[in-house]
Design brief:
Blueprint: H1 14-17, H2 23-39, E1 44-48, H3 49-56, H4 63-68, E2 71-76, E3 83-88, H5 91-95, H6 99-110
Antiparallel strand pairs: 1-3, 2-3
Length: 114
């Protein structure tokens, strides 16, 4: 992608959601999104538990956080000891900026010679 992973989209409704969710969790979601965008791939970040908790400034991610922000955490037993895969569901649907590609495709279709 041309954007070089320098952005992370967050819905402005997070301001409204903060009335029903702890503000700390919204901050953790934003930090996690930035981490996945900068260090992850296809919506998944592979890291160890200690690093994840240090970066998100928590001892554990609550079940409510995982549910509210559509996060999947799995332990990677086969890859390296102690690593986790942290995945945001529907990453491509909400994060990938395909508007430039789609616009270019429509232009090419309209101007193609058959």
């Amino acid at each position: 992608m041309a954007d070089q992973k320098k952005w992370f989209k967050a819905w402005t409704t997070l301001l409204i959601d903060s009335l029903s969710m702890p503000v700390d969790d919204i901050g953790r979601f934003t930090v996690l999104g930035c981490l996945i965008a900068s260090r992850g791939e296809n919506g998944t970040l592979v890291t160890d538990k200690k690093t994840l908790h240090t970066l998100l400034q928590c001892k554990e991610l609550s079940p409510d956080f995982i549910k509210n922000f559509n996060v999947i955490i799995t332990e990677n037993e086969g890859l390296c000891n102690g690593t986790l895969s942290v995945t945001m569901k529907n990453w491509n649907k909400y994060q990938v900026d395909s508007t430039g590609y789609e616009r270019q495709q429509r232009y090419r279709e309209a101007h193609s010679v058959t």
